[in-house]
Design brief:
about 55% helix; about 20% strand; 4 strands; 2 domains; alpha+beta; elongated
Length: about 130
């Protein structure tokens, strides 16, 4: 069973409601406890084993806070995507420079990284090291 747990801060607690299960309302001190509490409550109220309950947790904030949170999440996702592109590009550059017979230390100077990092990238890319 798939349910949505909407958690709203109320003082030092989180008030949690599950729209798919009428009457399911609980409280937790920390968001990390929402899934366990909701799964147990669904089992009790609906007879669905807790292990079979899939819970989408949605913390509810005011519009300004929600915007800041989504902005941070989007920035983190963009940074992860950029890091992935940078890693592929760096491995490609190392392989190309190795094909040009540059030494590990010269590659390090060209790319602005340590020669140890060049060695790691060579190994990760499966590039044959020159003797």
């Amino acid at each position: 069973m798939k349910v949505t747990a909407r958690a709203t801060r109320s003082g030092s607690w989180w008030a949690v409601e599950v729209p798919e299960v009428p009457g399911l309302f609980t409280q937790v001190k920390r968001l990390e406890h929402v899934r366990e509490q909701v799964a147990d409550a669904v089992e009790l109220l609906e007879g669905v084993p807790a292990a079979d309950v899939q819970i989408a947790l949605i913390p509810v904030f005011d519009t300004a806070t929600d915007g800041v949170v989504h902005g941070a999440q989007n920035a983190a996702a963009a940074a992860a995507a950029a890091q992935s592109v940078a890693s592929r590009s760096m491995r490609s550059a190392v392989a190309r420079l190795r094909d040009e017979q540059l030494t590990m230390r010269d590659i390090a100077e060209v790319l602005g990284i340590s020669h140890q990092r060049v060695s790691q990238l060579v190994q990760a890319a499966g590039v044959r090291e020159a003797g």
